[in-house]
Sequence to fold (247 residues):
Amino acid sequence: MSGPAPSSPARGGAVFTLIAALALVAVALAAIAGGWWTPWGSRYLQGVDVSHHQGAIDWRTLASDNVAFAYIKATEGADHVDTRFEYNWREAAAAGLYRGAYHFFTLCQPGARQATNFIATVPREAGALPPAVDLEHMGPCRQGPTMTDVVGEARAFMDRLEAHYGVRPIVYTTREFHDFYLRELTGERFWIRSLGMRPRFRERDWIIWQHHNRGHRRGVNGPIDLNAFRGDAAALAEFASSGRPEA
Fold:
């Protein structure tokens, strides 16, 4: 009896390429579902971002578990302050971590009003990471979005923060939000959410990459976002010293 027909070299190469691609997808899915960081992200300095959703954090334990920096939620919209910001801000510094504050931007209030909320909450401190503005909120506001120029309002927010802190904020975003609203936003540094895979947009502009949204680190009960810094320890120190004079 004759067996299966042998594959041609070209066909065999195509099959191998398909298998390799499927294997990469499987690794990415396992990383996202399984609670460990992706192999693509692990080559960089590791950091986390947190809010009240993480509850009580043991910052000294967290800092000892391959974490070099943290971004901490401070504010949202024009009037909300994260309930754990003050504690997390203080304890992250006490644990010896580089840390910065981020603002969750909404389409419901002018950028200048949202900047006022952030400035009233986050102190100016030498050695802090540049502020970050989280631009990903696609959902409706209570009375519908009020912004007709998202890029203009985001720039108004960043301009006010830059004037106050002495450093330009970085922009956190997703592919969906970016492609819908931010294609015309140029000249900025980005923090890109791209779970499992290295960012494929703003490739020259990203400085931080969120590669996992259900990672695990000691000192935190439950999942935590994991981020990669695009640079070595010296670059991270320079990034942290780029602004924020003492108040």
In short: The first strand starts at residue 45 and ends at 50. The CA atoms of residues 52 and 83 lie 6 Å apart.
